[in-house]
Design brief:
Blueprint: H1 3-17, E1 22-27, H2 34-43, H3 57-61, H4 63-66, E2 72-79, E3 92-93, H5 102-121, E4 126-129, H6 137-143, E5 148-149, E6 155-156, E7 164-171, H7 190-194, E8 200-202, E9 205-206, H8 212-218, E10 234-236, H9 240-243, H10 270-274, H11 278-284, H12 294-306
Parallel strand pairs: 3-10
Antiparallel strand pairs: 1-2, 2-7, 4-7, 5-6, 8-9
Helix pairs in contact: 1-5
Amino acid sequence: MSNKSKYTDLIKAEAKRLGFLSCGISKAGFLEEEAPRLESYLKANMNGEMAYLENHFDKRLDPTILVPDSKSVISLLYNYFPAETQREDTYKISKYAYGTDYHFVIKDKLKLLMDFISEEIGDVGGRAFVDSAPVLDKAWASKSGLGWIGKHSLLLTKQRGSFYFVSELILDLELEYDSPVTDHCGSCTACIDACPTGAIVAERVVDGSKCISYFTIELKNQIPESEKGKFENWMFGCDICQDVCPWNRFSQTHNEPLFNPHPDLLNMDRSDWEEITEEVFKSVFKKSAVKRTKFSGLQRNIQFLKD
């Protein structure tokens, strides 16, 4: 067995031991297919107020600029599908935000994987990324065979659907590389048909500036009145396009204790949310990604749904 094969097997086995759903590896290099897509997305202002997406254009498309001398992009999936969801008669938050902020949970896992690589393989340079740097996560995960990009622009797998986080290690180490898988969306348009704001403007193209997640998390100004009555009670994020996807009938419950929700979260009804205090907000969302919108932002979203 060559060193490349040996190291690849070691890394994949350790990723599995650390709780990652799957691990795929691609050769680091320029993403030719993604370049025109990213350019047209930005030219059409589909990023709305997310100006940060316009930064580091070259780095987004080429990890060898982001991490000098990089040879491999290791993509990893981490499950967050919950055992229980919120009650039906309430304002909803996206399932990914039920527990501890995934940035912290997965970054710790990636650090352990990096430490393992250093101990078992030697002096390997690289960086870990969890949705917080100019890396096209889904493109790399698709390239490394972990799934295909669905019509809702999210990564899909036949085995687990789409309720998982995507992260990467970009290393200056040559490894065995995986191949992409085929697309299995077929003629299904469930996600496109179900989106209440019409954010999925074409297959695999989501206008971020029309997405409920954008309005409830990223938008800092008032939500446009034209969107009244369209949010279907989503006050932080939105899971509609995932909930209706047939492949998500294969989603399996995560086994990450840190992703379990605060005990009060699942039982809060509309009046509980409408009367929420900053103290309760800090308690229920102590380490949650919901803190990103701040107490004032959540209040704005609830008021918008209520009026």
